[in-house]
Design brief:
Length: about 200
């Protein structure tokens, strides 16, 4: 299916796709209809990959440099919370980078990350921010506040501060240019006047 999707549209490609989907439906003959349909269209099963983890402590212990994550063995369990989060984020960031870089796409490289600094110490957060910058991602992230480290490492950031008063909430946009303090963004709503107007 992955190969067929990449081909230019054509009747014979459509027929080949139809046949591939019929074969997948037949794989679950006898199962409930919902399970057969889910199996047929679950694109996650069209790919196979493994994730291996490396850590300085692995080599120090005299064991293999890379350890594969599997159902029976998860080398992430021996790492700190921040290291685990970093190890699980990296494959996702690499997949996004691959998608944006190999498809001829030239628009914004948008990522959305919740609690970007959660569980990270300064060293690991610095690594993540440097990676996002080096891969030219446009990041929409939440964070409890704008820490000095985030200010230093991002170089330029748009900040939306959420203010609450009773049951009302408003968002105030700020722009930070990599130095000084963030400046509020304002809109000039004054209508343009013709040059010959009094």
């Amino acid at each position: 299916m992955v190969e067929l999707i990449a081909r230019p549209p054509a009747d014979d490609t459509f027929e080949a796709m139809y046949e591939a989907l019929r074969r997948r439906m037949k794989e679950k003959t006898g199962e409930p209809w919902a399970e057969r349909v889910a199996h047929t269209f679950d694109y996650r099963t069209w790919y196979e990959w493994t994730i291996s983890v490396t850590h300085s402590s692995f080599e120090a212990a005299g064991k293999e440099k890379f350890r594969e994550i599997s159902v029976r063995s998860n080398p992430l369990e021996g790492l700190s919370t921040g290291e685990r989060r970093l190890a699980t984020m990296l494959p996702l960031l690499a997949a996004a980078w691959s998608m944006y870089s190999t498809s001829g796409y030239t628009g914004p490289r948008l990522l959305s990350i919740d609690e970007i600094d959660a569980a990270f110490d300064e060293a690991n957060l610095r690594k993540v921010l440097a990676l996002l910058r080096s891969w030219n991602f446009d990041v929409l992230a939440t964070a409890p506040d704008m820490t000095p480290l985030i200010k230093r490492e991002t170089e330029r950031a748009m900040i939306h501060q959420v203010l609450t008063s009773g049951r009302r909430r408003i968002t105030v946009p700020w722009l930070w240019h990599g130095h000084g303090e963030p400046q509020p963004l304002t809109l000039d709503l004054t209508p343009a006047q013709p040059e010959d107007a009094p």
